Amino acid sequence: MIAVVSGGTKGIGRAISELFLEQGMKVYISSRTKDNNFSHDNLVQFEADLSARLGINDFADFIKTKETQVDILVNNVGVFVPGSLMDEEDGMFELQLDTNLASTYHLTRALISEVRKSDNAYIYNICSTASITPYMNGGSYCISKYAQLGFTKVLREELKPEKIRVSAVLPGATMTNSWSGTDLPTDRFIQPSAIAKLIWAAYQLPSNTVMEEILVRPMDGDIT
Q1: CA distances (Å), 168 to each of 31, 119, 149, 187, 213, in order?
Q2: Domain range summary for the chain, segments of one domain joined by +
């Protein structure tokens, strides 16, 4: 089985990739810089900036030279730059829309022919609780995540006749680089491995069953 995970060297993407490898899958991941400490016989790393269309095309074209089908596509790459809409720096809107939304749209379109060849295809888009709940200092990040959830819903409807399952994954505060330097205890956050386990559990469901939205928060609630 073949999996593709964008942004697969850190955080949630890393945890998903590691779990897929444990399950015997061949995994293709993208990142801006390869991680030499992350290696496996079935892991293929590809350097690409998925905030740019050229990087998306290069990553997809590389996969197509190696594989004829893709069983699981995880659109995980993302960026969070805190700020309010009226005060954030110029360019933050474009950066977060390009990374969080456009990469999901363009990578899915680029690989959909290969996904359609799988007998048990699944697409996961890593959204956020910010996809459904606006919060202070969320700025353009919230906009991008609302739009990513909307894209996921439209994609699910369009692919239903082809029996391709599509899930939106909406994690709350997860211990990733976005929270580096925080003074909060680690048990206040979701661990990336928990998100990976949920994704794998959804994949194990019968092929006529789909978790449309996987919403998960820390037990103590959102961090605001």
Answers
A1: 21, 21, 7, 24, 5
A2: 2-216
Give the model confidence (pLDDT) of 193-223 as tens digits.
999 999 999 999 999 999 999 999 998 888 7
Decide if 57 contacts 70 (C-beta within 8 A).
no
Check if the beta carbon of residue 107 is closer than 8 Å to that of residue 50. Answer: yes
pLDDT of 180 over the 70 cut: no
Sheet order of strands, 213-216 included:
43-47, 26-31, 2-5, 72-75, 122-126, 165-171, 213-216
Q: Give the residue from 181, 157, 183, 179 showing the smallest Cα distance to 168.
A: 157
Token look-up 């964008």 returns 6
Q: Determine the pLDDT at residue 183.
A: 73
Nearest-angstrom CA–CA distance, 139 and 28: 32
Checking if the pLDDT of 176 tops 80, the result is no
For the domain 2-216, what is the CATH code? 3.40.50.720
Query: Rounded distance, CA 92 to CA 180, Å?
Result: 20
Q: Which residues are 113's β-sheet partners? A: none
Percentage helix, strand, coil, to 5, in the chain?
A: 45, 15, 40
pTM attached to this predicted model: 0.94
